[in-house]
Amino acid sequence: MLSRIPRSQLVRTSKRSFTTTAVREADFTHAVIGGGAVGLAIARQLAGRDGTSTVLIERNGAVGMETSSRNSEVIHAGLYYGATSLKTALCIRGRQMMYALCEKYSIPHRNTSKWIVAQTNEQWEELVKIHKYTQSIEGVPTHYVSLEEAAAKEPHVRAKAGILESPTTGIVDSHAYMQFLLGAFEERGGDVALRSPVVGISSLGERGSRGWEVRTKDMKTEEETTFTTETIINSAGLGACDVNNMILPPVRHQKQYYAKGNYFSYAAATPATTRLIYPAPVPGLGGLGTHLTLDISGRIRFGPDVEWVDSPDDLAVNSTRLSQAIEQIRTFLPGIRVEDIQPDYAGIRPKLGKDSAVATGKRFMDFVIRKEEGYEGFINLLGIESPGLTSSLAIAEMVEGLLYK
Description:
By secondary structure, this protein is α+β, with helices and mostly antiparallel strands. The chain has helices spanning 7-10, 37-47, 86-105, 121-134, 147-153, 174-187, 240-247, 322-332, 388-403, and strands at residues 28-33, 54-57, 74-75, 109-110, 114-118, 143-145, 162-166, 170-172, 191-193, 198-203, 212-217, 224-234, 257-266, 276-279, 291-294, 300-303, 307-309, 341-351, 368-371, 378-382.
């Protein structure tokens, strides 16, 4: 919580160059709300600017406890989001940056590659579409795998109609990655306030012209703390619409929808794979289907499915969905031992529309990352779901660019 820091230590003189007409001394130059992977990356990026101060506000008792730690930990290639979307551009850039960062700082990761498998002619047509699309953009290679090659490399995997490989897909230890970002942020002089949900934001001057006043409440003591900041970056993930609605007028309010993904673990040693296995995508689906991913130790897990829920706290695995998952898994891994599949964990993806799709299609919804028109120093991030982890470093670059053009 912020109240542990004496007020006198919070007040700083900073050298600013972002696009604002305000003349003031605030407690901080930047306040980043939300300590998931994206918020951590943004905080680290901004803390690297000379003469500035940055505080990271997180409502939980540790960073990365929500969407960022309850996902597949996949480093995505950028196959599904359309040539002109922010998701594609930031995913490609973010993937390249993440591999480089993980290699440089020995953050556990692996370039596993991914197979997208088709069982029907209709699914094969989807693979053809993906391959044709990836040939039209730079930095997202794909190629077909013959069934003979597949049988030699992954004898337990079934693909009746064909396989498309994404050689740049991989996995990362998301916890180690976020701990690195946190450490780097603190080494650059950043402040972290945990257990400090934001309960109010007020404009100083006209729409932030003289900065912002932020109120947080300690979750244990219920003590409120107020501080001022020159800029606000809303990276609150599942709470991003709440923060948005604290600042913007009702006509610009947003409603948050919650897509729960259930994951299932696999305890048996066989059948096994060395790469990620995804079913061919179904247009308009809220996710990419129940797929096989690996953790850093090589352990298999299946998921996520898509279950629309009313609360971001609904994190219990819905065991009733196991039978449906098994049916999907058996299409590409027929030798699976059903008795060794167990409920593992669940995560919630923040969506801006009910039944919104992950991949391109009628209901596809892109990332929203923008400097809100008419509001000084307010950068808004909404609908940051997959591929948010992969894109996090690129999103941080973009946010800095929006502030410091």
